[in-house]
Amino acid sequence: MLPTAAPAPPPSGSRTAGNPPLIALVGPPNAGKTTLFNRLTGLRQKVANYPGVTVERKTGALRLPSGAQLEVVDLPGVNGFSARTMDERVTRDVLEGRAEGIRHPDAVILVVDATRLEPHLMLVEPVMETGVPMILVLNMWDELEARGGSVDTHVLGEELGIDVVPANARTGEGLDALDDFLEGVYERGPMPERPCPAVQNHPGGVPLPMADAFARRRRRVRGWTRGAAYVPAGPSAFSRRLDSVFLHPIAGPAVFLTVVVMVFEAMFAWAVPLMDGVEWGIATSGEWVAATLPDTWFRALLIDGVWAGVGSVLVFLPQILILFAFLGVLEDSGYLARAAVIADRMMYRVGLQGRAFLPLLSAYACAVPAILSARTIEDERDRLATIFVAPFMTCSARLPVYALLIAAFIPERPLLGPFLGTRAATLLGLYALGALAAIGTAFLLKRTLLRGQPSTFMMELPPYRVPSLRSLGLRLYDRTKVFLKRAGRIILVVAIVLWALAQVPRVDGAAPVIEDSVLGTVGQLIEPAIEPLGFDWRIGIGLVSSLAAREVIVGTLGTIYGVENADEGSLELQDALKRHLDLGSAVGLLVFFVFALQCMSTVAVARRETGGWKWPALQFGYMLTLAYVGAWVANALL
Amino acid sequence: MSPDILEVIDDGEPDLRLTEIALRDVVELVRIDLPDHEAEPLLERGFMPGCSLCPIRKSRSGDPIVMVDGTLIALRREMAGCLCVKQVGSQG
After folding, report:
1. Of the four, A96, A256, A307, A330, which is 20 to 30 A from A508 by CA?
2. What are the distances in angstroms from CA A334 to CA A161, A415, A474, B38?
3. Does the complex come out with an ipTM higher than 0.90?
4. Which architecture does CATH list for A3-227?
């Protein structure tokens, strides 16, 4: 074969410093932007945060048939450019070339839902005004056709002066038509730095009242669609039928409750065998490493520090994955928007809103993803209140602690025949206590620090769709990476530090007994402060170590009481606890764990999401105070 | 009286609110009684003067779900009460 038959080498003239041109995906929420992003980039994605703000930045590499490579960024979905939400601000700043840590895009793919063409076309003008070359993708074309709609894409393209591509991102149909545009972007190479006009809802020129500015833009949109013989999609009979059940005044809330119970059941029942499997894997690999390495301080660090620490996080992964799989299906199917609407009135009464439902539900697995998902709440005060109360929901890290203490101190007796025993009732009570604290705190916040006009709540209800497995898989893959990175790093550091503090000062070259170690000294130092709660220095060390992550206390108490391989089921550890705690202080300890914010990952995420230390510091102090008072009361009463 | 004012009066029932409209009745949005920054999210989602609105469902607490521009939007009753509408067809 002649060498000329090989794919053409990428042109070199226009290339600068090795950066491939950057394509930005812009579009309204639920228009299939992320599905298209997944189609274009597959597993070649990375997730990071924009510096300063914590809206996730998803970038990925796109390889064209010619072999040329481009970078794609999936910008947060927007309905407009009023920049009310963090999502809108990020999208606007990227389009204007002002976002930190990301280049000015060289081209834009505007993705809209063909079944909601007219409202979505309102985004065309503001994006066009930036001067960045763009192409318009009419996604969900198959659905438009199935529901009897149509539009002449050639005419629409001529009117807009850009290429218009009908496509179906779920199946990839029609996306080949993007190749010419993208090849063109590649040929041109990165655009030179240039000033960019501000992107906003209010078109430049004569200032008009807001409603008039929109009405004018809307008339232009209608002009385009008329010219292109647009026939809107008929109503979706499928969606209407489902809504008549899911949004029914009585059946709707019943379905809602069933879904919530099912998510819980999945998290706590289905996840157990998987979690046991992960635990087994960690223990087995730890034993293998222990057997392979010589008995040195390094082996001890690796096994007692790294393996134990990272293992304590990894074990929650199945639960979090199951939660996200559920949430993914609920969100992609369109049900989650309905659930938020059903929950809104109830949440509004306590000072929150419907969009807080998803974060608070997630918080039963882990507060970290919960706080991250609070981003979808447009109202800043509602978002702060949601972030503030999320750690009160009983996250799965509290479960090992609850399990240990309940097993040790609460005798099992039937309460409601075979249905409910004292132990299960105690567990339910602890869940209820956390939820009540969250409700009371939200109520209080909205009447003090976060007082203001009642927030507005508005929710678009997209048509129901069958979720795509591919998108779901990518989402889980993505979440796993983010969770392990965020949580794992902190736990790893803390586990190593705790281990090291228990190793010094050395006695005859060996680790001291825990009482004499630096860690033990810390426990004794805080003992006077926790004595009124009925806790001694041992629990003190447990509390200090659990500041990193709640479940760490189980392993720490195991170390202190000299119980090998302690977990929440260890009878030996339960006996040791019974010797050092009475019922009052044990319940006090449980109450302490319900309220206290012992989780560095949560504090770190809250700091990033609220843009400073003020809120997490307040949150930490408030929850600690509540925990202290609660534990004192429990200890005094029992 | 200037013709402008007469026109407003002729419009009839300028104070009819979206909350008062029966399900499935199609009405036209006349005005949004909210400051610009609160009206903007409504405008972005297609609630602009002159558009047709149709309440499709109501929750038990009276929060409507409205069809606008072929899209379903759920509102709180407080916000729906800020949307001034007029009947179309019934008054010519």
Report:
1. A307
2. 34, 40, 18, 26
3. no
4. 3-Layer(aba) Sandwich (3.40)
